[in-house]
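anyone seen this seq b4? input:
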Amino acid sequence: MNFLCICTYFKGVEFLKSCKAEGNTVYLLTNKKLENKAWPWESIDETFYLENIDNTFDTYSNIIKGLAHLMRSKKIDRIVALDDFDVEKAALAREHFRIPGMGQTTARYFRDKLAMRVQAAHAGINVPPFSALFHDVDITEYLQSTTAPWVIKPRSEASAAGIKKVHSFQEAWDTIHSLGEERHNYLIEQFKPGDVYHVDALTVDGKVIFARCSQYLNTPFEVAHGGGIFRSVTVEHDSKDEKALAKVNAQVMKAFGMKFSASHTEVIKCYEDGKFYFLETASRVGGANLAEMVEYSSSINLWREWAKIETAVATGGVYELPPVDDFYSGIIISLSSYQWPDYAPFNDPEVIWKMDEEYHVGLIVRSSKRERVLELMEKYALMIRDLGYHASAPAPDKPVH
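predicted toks r here
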């Protein structure tokens, strides 16, 4: 089979390797700025580049024209988006060339935060009270019928980029007005204080066959806007929380029409009422090295298995999930004041992975006991802060390449 993988951020190396290992021809469409990155070139048959990766009509037109030219001599059987920002590109190309897979309507549920909330609410899934920013009267009525604080967020950005927290009616309207002609690309929702969780999953034939539930110890919003240290840890196995999170994830996948893919879903457990509220989802593997964290707790490499799933679906084969382990893992990542931090002080035997990226410090620990993972997460957070490793930067309006 011939796979076109669209990935305009540097990620998905294991997917590309696995896709090739399954006997496929692998084409990569990526950002011209990433041509010198350490892609697994031995697993890529041909590479194509985009000068402009923004999801605009010009970019879409270039993709369609380029793919039309390619397909005169080479048939494309499947198109896979390896990053959030490429979901629309892949869906458009599938629709235009009638290639099987997620179309534009379904893709919206995994990219557009407004579409997510509307669809989830229609399916009876708890979501924080929200409003589109289309109609002035609707917005005013929404603000008057809910209580502050609220968050105003882009409909199509990833992570916590571009999110603004507002604390009064006037501040909300001032922020909305500041968006100018772009306000239709945003939404507003009530801020629900609580613990934020993520469910990293694999779906085959419309059924979730693997789900690993984890809890952010510092939410992505806190990290992006407070200069904090990113941490996440596996949820207690067979606990009420794990079962509730897995149920919400399964409901979301069903409501959104997910047939087969990896997914990353975020859910909040509200302090006020103890209920779980769906926040957002994505039809891809989670970022911030969460895939490595999941693998060290479960032995499931999400990138690798996703490629196998795509191949099995494309060829009419049968996919079998490997045996799943039930360890606990935790990840901690921070910007660092050192170009290449010294990891010598982080020497507990549970340390199983160390981040190798300039001006970052990051670790994954693994244990058979969750309490030990939590203990190490706290210990290393204090060390990163107190030993001068930690650095912070202003929250970006958009994610950085």
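The longest helix spans residues 370-386. The chain has a mean pLDDT of 94. kinda curious what u guys think
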